Amino acid sequence: MTAAKYLPKRHDVFVKLIFPMLLAAAWLAGCATVPSPPSLAIWDAAELGRVEVVRRHLVAGTDVNARGGITGLTALHQAAFHGHTAIARLLIGAGADVNAANRRGETPLHSTVYWGHREIAGLLIANGAAVNAKLENGQTPLDWAVQLGAADMAEFFRSQGGKSGVSAKDAEKKQETDFTDLQDHCPTTAHVETVSAARSLTVKQLLNENVPSRVSICGVVIIKKTKNGKN
Fold first, then answer.
1. N or C, where is the chain less crowded by C-beta within 10 Å?
2. CB neighbours (10 Å) of residue 29?
């Protein structure tokens, strides 16, 4: 038999055996190229403004709505709180839940209030965030803005249809637990600033010690109520 007569048989062998093996090898090689998630958690990366780390998490298939912290914050909560607009856009583009609520009911829109991140607030609302989302005590983002003296944010929320969800009396009760909420956004320590000194305290110390009435956590000034109700 001539060599020409062997060619069809050799071709059949290649198609039936070798080619499928090559496809399987290519598939396995493709699977091997999927990167492992970074060691830094996605919500921590969002807090620190590490946009490339967040992007690597998304490429690796990390859940964009993964929870962290004491109360169950998402990476979008952290980006909104710390003002990382690029990360917020990246997360929303990857399908992040703009109405994700932590255990206290805080949504990413609530998180924009502390530092007055109006641009991110607008981005969230434009992508479906509920402007009147409520905390467990009924407070809306507008209520928080009013309580914290963020006049620009309050004006913005009103322009977007924002309304109050609680009475003024009930809103005052929230100030006693704002320390824990803020600590969750800055998980290492709570920084307490006074006129004469600055030091770091854990949340437990902050709530139990005789700390000054004017404190700053993550750079946010909060007025702590004394037992007699005075500042």
1. N
2. 9
Residue with tokens 């030091």: 199
Asked if residues 180 and 186 have their Cβ atoms less than 8 Å apart, the reply is no
CA distance 100 to 82: 17
Vertex 161: Cα angle to 140 and 164 (nearest 5): 30
Give helix 85-93 / helix 118-126 axis angle, nearest 10°: 10
Among 71, 73, 75, 36, which residue's Cα sits nearest to residue 54?
75
Q: How far apart are CA 112 and CA 106, in angstroms?
A: 11
Q: Which of 23-27, 132-136, 197-201, 208-212 is the most confident on average?
A: 132-136
- The total of other beta-carbon atoms located within 10 Å of residue 229's CB is 7
Q: Is residue 101 very low, low, confident or very high in pLDDT (cuts 50, 70, 90)?
A: very high
Whole-structure pTM value: 0.69
